[in-house]
Write a structure and sequence with these properties.
With 174 residues, the protein is mainly β. It contains no helices and 14 strands.
Length: 174
Amino acid sequence: RSPQPESSPQFSADGRSLAMTGDSNFGNRQGDDTVVRVVRPDMPTAPALTLRGQEFSPSAQFSADGRWLLTAATDITLQGNRTLARLWRLAPQSGQPTAQVLPGIVTFLHGANFSPDGRFLLTISGAGPTARLWRLTDAGATLAATLDIPRQQLNWHWDISFSPDSAKIGRAHV
C-alpha cells in the first residue's frame, strides 16, 4: 500500500514535538492509517516515535507541558463503532512511550482538553454524553470525577476548557 499523506498535525505547546496522524479512508474504514508519528523538528535526524494501537484514524492532542499525548477517534461517522482513547506518556523513565486506554470511552470522542497545569484531562464521549475528569500523575490517569452533561439536540460538537488557573471547567456546544 502506498503511504498516505499525514493529516491533522499538532505541535506541542513548546514547539519541540509534532504529532502527525494518518488519513481516514472514508470508503473503507478498515483502510484508515491508524499510526501516530511524533517527530522532533529541532532534531531532523532523530527517528520518529511510532505510536500504534488505534482502531481508526485518530486525532492527537498534547498536554501543555508536553508530557502527555491523547489519541482518539473524533469522527462522528464512527458512531456505533468501538473506538478507544489512548493516553501516551511521552517522557517515561524507560524512554519508550507507553499507552493507557482510558476506560469508559468506547465511542468516538466528542471533545477533550488538558488543564493548563498538566494535572488533569477532561473528556466528553458517549451517547449520553458523559464528561470524565482524569487526574494525571507519573503512574498514569485515574478517574477523578464523572459528570453528566445535557445531550445536544442538533449536533455533537462540543468545546470544553479549563480556566487559566485550572480550577474551573467550562463547556459549550456549537
